[in-house]
Amino acid sequence: MLLLIFNRVLLAIPTLVGVVVVTFVLTRALPGDPAAYFAGPAATQQSIQEIRVKLGTDRPLIEQFGRYISDLARGELGNSLTTGQPVGKEIKARLPASAELTLIGLLFAVMIAVPMGILAATRPNSFIDHATRIVSTAGVSLPVFFTGLLLVYVFYYILGVAPSPVGRLDVFLSPPRHVTGFYLIDAALGRDREVFVSALKQLVLPALTLGIFALAPIARMTRASMLAVLSSDFVRTARASGLSPYKVVVTYAFRNAMLPVITTLGMVLSFLLGANVLVEKVFAWPGIGSFAVEALIASDFAPVQGFVLTMAVLYVLLNLSIDVLYGLIDPRIRINS
Amino acid sequence: MRRRDFLKSSAAAVAGVSAPAIFTRSAEAQTRSETLLAISENAPNSQDIHGVGANRPAYEVSWNSYDRLMTYGVKKDEQGQDHYDFKKIEPELAEDMNVGPSSITFKLKRGATFHDGAPITAADVKWSFDRAVTVGGFPTFQMKAGSLEKTEQFVAVDDRTFRIDLIRKDHMTIPDLAVPVPAIYNSELCKKNVTAQDPWAMEFTKNNGAGSGAFKVSRWQPGTEVVYERFDDWKGGPLPKLRRVIWRTIPSAGNRRALLERGDADISFDLPNKDFAELAAARQLSIIGTPVENAIQYVGMNAKEGPFANPKVRQAVAWAIPYQKIMDAVLFGRAAPMFGDGDNVATGFAWPQKHGYTTDLVKAKALLTEAGFPNGFETTMSFDLGLAGVNEPMCILIQESLAQIGIRFTINKVPGSNWRNELLKKNMPLITNTFGGWLNYPEYFFFWAYHGQNAVFNTMSYQNTKMDGFIDAARAAGAIDDTAAYQAAVKGFVDMSFDEVPRIPLYQPYLNVAMQKNITGYRYWFHRQLDYRQLVKA
């Protein structure tokens, strides 16, 4: 197992190097000039040139890259122009917000999609199977910003049951004392019921928006993999032995069908982190997605590079943990490795 | 770990998470009636207006959390709304102001302190002014506009007396003391936070307050939220009615409107014109639209090269702009028209004022033929994508209209971050843009926008010595209060700008604000940011 982890980490290094190079080149290829932004409203060509010299953007690309790498080696991700803060600090503050939202969204999707997929597989072409098909098609074809705005319109604007879409907490509450950065956990640790409830309420609509988007692949994959397992020999044997349908489906079939579902979950989690960008925009969620988009609009290199790098590291870690999970769930993987 | 153990333990972990937590403490109740919730699209990137690259929202933080020596008084505008009065300079931190022939002396208010309790002395004022003229960039540039250029000009005579020695007579000097830039910083606090690379503590003031303003920042989450508490020992004016201000960033325009309509947010500037027009019609909220002083949205043409170098071509374009359509379909009436005055001769000496062009395609076509382009020509029109909500439909309307006289263009959308850079290159043939000057003087506008010094705001690269003569004459006459010469010069450059039309004024934009009916005391300011100090929430 340790060897497996070690191998995986080793394999991740070229990926990360590639990401660093590509983001550097891509951000430099963007139109826009941070020096012009820095120089302010009354800048002359000369004062912009002075700032370019100060920022080092007048140097050849390769030299800029060298400087970027040496900063990176010291853990420096640079400064954001749009928020005025060091990128590392921003990402550290904003990552928990995105992670909390994504995880709750995923949890919601799993809670709906997995039972739906199982039911659909056990009763193919029944009403529930068609319903699954419709829900998953609708979920995947509705863009998240649209679902988000629609939910806000219906539940906040028309019905008035949802709280106002102003971010992670009601405006009149202060954030809980920082422990993990997850407001739900921090509020629970601080035993602050009001903040906990408010944070939970604020999470509902954005998590729902993300969840609806994530339903489809999970439900489809659960259904497909359950169908395959249910038609296999050992399930037939179990049924022939007179085991209860519940025991056959849940204990034997589902556990074996979990493997592809876990893979899909990993994939879904990664693209949810991406889909977050729009959900965060709609719900004024102070996550890393909205941070990166704002930076991109302002040609603010450092946060974009920091964001892509963070995401790359997260993906690597995510894939690693999924591989480890595999080993725990399926003994064959462990033996082969 | 074995497989079964893992499955068991993960099941236990899930159960642990869903187990109900026990809560004991409830957060203290906060008074919502004394708290203002303002929402905006963008967030400040600094608390300090001197900061490199400080954005517009940063001006708002600085304005409310710092004091200046002087400030502007108030008047009623044509709609009966409060409007700052640029002709009335009133004391803020200074108790009085004595204008001598070669210097101005200020006495500071007794007992005024910074947020940390330190008394405000003339040494703080000197340090702050020295900083503004030394750090470069925008603050230094703005100080220069009032002939405040060298540190030797600023003298701390004693603890409460501060003197500015004038290097030349300039009628912008006193007005320039009341703009956000010459804010007074707590110099002792700042000096504790200087480093070798940062002798003016710019890093410190970016993230921390060092002022004496009516509100102090109590929480700042960059990009998300600014929370202010009232500074109860404020000496700069009458104590504000609001105790607390929460300023949240809400990126989605639709949600900003929903928050206002549901009554959850109190005030916002940032809505599309269409929303403002609809909200004004619905009457549920107070909507105030104030023409932005000394600001004009215009179509600029490159007067240096290409077909637009010919004034006849420029006049042809001015006769072919669909002015009224732009007012109706793009702005929903929420702007002051700058066209259709009847003739191209200045009316009075105020700026902005209407020119005489309207939409007359026959006249336009005739002028174009006269200029030697009977079949028109091809070009490109550029706009700032950051303001696409207005610029894009406008360009499409202009495209349609100009095509009818044979001028065909493709639309070039420039990303907001690159717009200034493109402007500086001065090679775009046709653009639309807005320019507004803080100081409300016609010659100030023309100095930046039409003068042959070719500043970045002279986006047309228009250079004409006769025009420069009028502008320089107005500046000189203004400085010595020679009204007759001043008015002649203003009339001269306004007439000339209409006749030569290197830029075609379209409209004077409004600064729109939407607020709940129980919010009163809103005041329009030249910096177009919110001043919390006069606001009252009933």
What's the SSE blueprint?
The complex is a heterodimer of chains A (337) and B (538).
Chain A (H helix, E strand, L loop, with lengths): L1 H28 L4 H6 L5 H11 L5 H13 L13 H36 L4 H15 L2 H15 L24 H7 L3 H38 L2 H8 L4 H38 L5 H10 L3 H29 L1 H6 L1
Helix pairs in contact in A: 1-13, 5-6, 5-9, 5-11, 6-9, 7-9, 7-11, 8-9, 9-11, 11-12, 11-13, 12-13
Chain B lengths: L2 H16 L16 E6 L15 H10 L4 E7 L5 E10 L2 E6 L3 E6 L13 H13 L2 H8 L9 E5 L2 E5 L7 H4 L10 H5 L10 H6 L7 E7 L3 E6 L13 E6 L3 H9 L5 E2 L4 H10 L3 E6 L3 E7 L9 H10 L2 H8 L4 E3 L23 H10 L6 E8 L3 H16 L3 E8 L1 H10 L4 E7 L5 H8 L15 H15 L3 H18 L2 E13 L3 E2 L2 E2 L11 E2 L1
Parallel strand pairs in B: 1-10, 1-11, 3-20, 15-16, 15-17
Antiparallel strand pairs in B: 2-3, 4-5, 5-7, 6-7, 8-9, 9-10, 11-18, 12-18, 13-17, 13-18, 14-18, 19-21
Molecular structure report:
The complex is a heterodimer of chains A (337) and B (538). Chain A is an all-alpha fold. In chain A, 77% of the residues lie in helices and 0% in strands. In chain A, α7 (144-158) crosses α11 (245-282). In chain B, strands 1, 8, 9, 10, 11, 12, 13, 14, 15, 16, 17 and 18 form a 12-stranded mixed beta sheet that branches. A 4-stranded antiparallel beta sheet of chain B has the order 4-5-7-6, covered by helices on one side. Chain B has helices at residues 3-18, 56-65, 122-134, 137-144, 173-176, 187-191, 202-207, 253-261, 273-282, 311-320, 323-330, 361-370, 388-403, 416-425, 442-449, 465-479, 483-500; strands at 35-40, 70-76, 82-91, 94-99, 103-108, 154-158, 161-165, 215-221, 225-230, 244-249, 267-268, 286-291, 295-301, 335-337, 377-384, 407-414, 430-436, 503-515, 519-520, 523-524, 536-537. Helices cover 33% and strands 23% of the residues of chain B. With 538 residues, chain B is of the alpha+beta class. In chain B, β6 and β7 (161-165) form a beta hairpin. The model of chain B is unreliable at 6-30 (pLDDT under 50). Chains A and B meet through α2, α3, α7, α9 and α12 of A and α1, β1, α4, β10 and α8 of B.
